[in-house]
Amino acid sequence: MVIYVDGDSCPVKAEVERVATRHGLSVVIVTNGGLRPSSNPMVETVFVAQGLDEADKWIAARAGAGDLVVTGDIPLAATCIAAGALVVQHDGTILSAGNIGPVRASRDLMSELRAADPFHKGSGRGFTRADRTRFLDALEQVLRRPPAQG
After folding, report:
1. N or C: which end of the chain has fewer CB within 10 A?
2. Considering the entire predicted model, what is its pTM?
3. What is the domain class of 2-118+125-143 according to CATH?
4. d(Cα 137, Cα 22) in Å, to the nearest integer?
C-alpha cells in the first residue's frame, strides 16, 4: 500500500506522515509547490507542473488497488476509487465505491447552485479539531483493515 496525499491545501499532512511511519507505509505527497519536503525517508514529495489539476492527474495515473488517497477533491476521489483505491477526506469521511456516487452528485449540485448565485461568498466551514480527530480515526480504521481478497 502506498498513501498518496493531494498535498496542496491539505491540513493533515503531518498526521498522515506520523501514522504511516508507525505502520511502515510509504507516503507520496504531490504538490504544485510551496511545500518543504519531509526529511522522513518514508515520505516522498513530488512536485508537479503548475496548472489546473496537475497534482490530481499525477495521483490518478498512479493510485490503484490497495492504495490509499488522502484528498478533499471529489472528482479525484471518484477516479481513484474506480481504479481500486480507498479515499479518506480531510474530515475523516471514508469514500468507497459504495458511497462516492451520492457524494459526487451532492458536490455537483452544490457547484451548480454556487455558480447560479453571483452573490455567494465562501466555500463552507473551516477545518476543525474535531475534523482532525475524525481523520485520524478514519486513517487508523482504513490502515487496520485486512487486505482485500481478490
Report:
1. C
2. 0.87
3. alpha beta
4. 14
Beta-carbon contacts of residue 87 (< 8 Å; ≥ 6 apart) = 68, 69, 70, 71, 77, 80, 81, 94, 95, 96, 100
The count of residues in the chain is: 150
Give residue limits of the domains in the chain. 2-118+125-143
- Residue 15 CA to residue 31 CA, distance in Å, equals 17
DSSP 69: E
Please, what sign has the CA dihedral across residues 23, 67, 92, 5?
A: positive
Cell of 38: 519531509
Residue-level pLDDT, tens digit, the chain, 150 residues = 999 999 988 999 999 999 999 999 999 999 998 889 999 999 999 999 988 889 999 999 999 999 999 999 999 999 999 999 999 999 999 999 998 888 777 766 767 776 777 776 655 678 899 999 999 999 999 999 876 644
Range 41-45 contact pairs with CB under 8 angstroms and sequence separation of 24 or more = 42/17, 43/17, 45/7
